Amino acid sequence: MINSINELWQFRELLVALTLREIKVRYKQTILGMLWAILQPLSLTLIFTFVFGIILKVNSGVVAYPVFAYSALVPWTFFSNSVTFGSLSVVNNGNLVTKVYFPREILPLSSIGAALFDFLMAGIILILILFFYQIPINLNFLLILLIIPSIIFLTAGISFFFSAINVMFRDIRFVIPLLLQIWLYVTPVIYSTNQVPQKYQIFFKLNPLVSLIENFRLVTVYGRSPNLLEVGFNLVLSLCVLVIGYWFFKSREKIFADVI
Amino acid sequence: MSQNTFAIEFKNVTKNYLITKGRYGLLSEKVGELFSFGRSQSNNRRVITALKNVSFKIKHGEAVGVIGRNGAGKSTILKLISKISYPNQGQVLVKGRIGAFIELGAGLHPELSGRENIFLYGAILGMKKKEIEKKFDEIVDFAEIRKFLDVTIKKYSSGMYSRLGFSVCAFCDPNILLVDEVLAVGDNNFQQKCLDKMCSFAKRKTIVFVSHDLRAIKSICKTVIYLEKGKIKKIGNPQEVIKSYLKEAKGDQI
Asked: Which value does ipTM take for this structure?
């Protein structure tokens, strides 16, 4: 694995080039261009606010529901887009895989890189929204520096896993949207964790995204400090998912060009 | 690099491709295969042997042509050298940076401009950004696309498209050059330019050249490998090998 990481480092310029390609190409020939990066979480926020904030009156505590929803949708959209595009990346770049050699993990990583760019844009909007709602930002905000890497590692591990499987079974293309839809509902985006009945909490917490997204919202919107032990545990857990996903990907990589 | 070391060495290389019987194999079998990390193969499937126990050595600076009929395993050799694919048995040893002219344009993106594509394709071929910047003008001039540098290449003619692909490859300066049937690019004028470029490479670099164009092979290569059904039928100097290839292939279209 050390060798693989070394080689990946050798090819870092290709990773940058392919990430830039993803970002540039994605919004080519669209009228709104880069605006789509933020329109996606923003429009979901509007819908969620209408359905869950106004009609179903989900309790969002001291903050307004749109802020509550948007602050979770920012990391969620990153996760969802990365996994969607990441798992298709190897197959979609089949013409490269069968013709040129490079470490294949660059393909899912460049999808994640592009999604990270959108994440950054949406994050800036989040800060603007916080100003607009006059929600103070305090030092706890800095904890996102631990939470965001955890989200990225988890996302990368899962994308590696699915992109490798997708090479062999194209079913993954249909499984992913379904899976992500279910995943959204079992993650505290629309509601918050403390609204989940006590007896389901244990199962609920098995989803690694639960505390990541909950904590992201906690430090950005509520300005409160999360349980640091939990933050550390999440980081380690995400790293484990990354290592396992990467190992799985590398172990299947050699047959990609033959199977695609 | 000293002359007596090898740039490329194939040791008893066998490469099989699996062809599944139905559209999908049995799910249980598939899932089993997915989680068995070895190279177990079930006997239910047809195995196509692309290369059978092939061994050869290519010295540094040697230009080698590979000829043979369709399906003889020529492209498989290039894929094994460039580590796109891996052998089932045997070993492939390669020393040096590899540059592949395999199907030009695989790395080009139609939605990007010519300029952007030069940087993208260069990176795909393993060039550093600084290196590309240094050679940028040469690449553009060789491809003859200066006027259209900032146009998205989906608007390019197919000739311009492949000229761009060839030019980026031609300037990526590898130690080992793999060429798969790509000299038939552009008009006569540009084809001659490509051939000249190849001949100048042949003086300095290791080249493995797969082609049906026997004249080009003769003018570039010093050794020719003649493949038939995954085995080396003959290896040696171009005149002789090509002669025996033509004798065998008499009546067939080459």
From this structure: 0.81
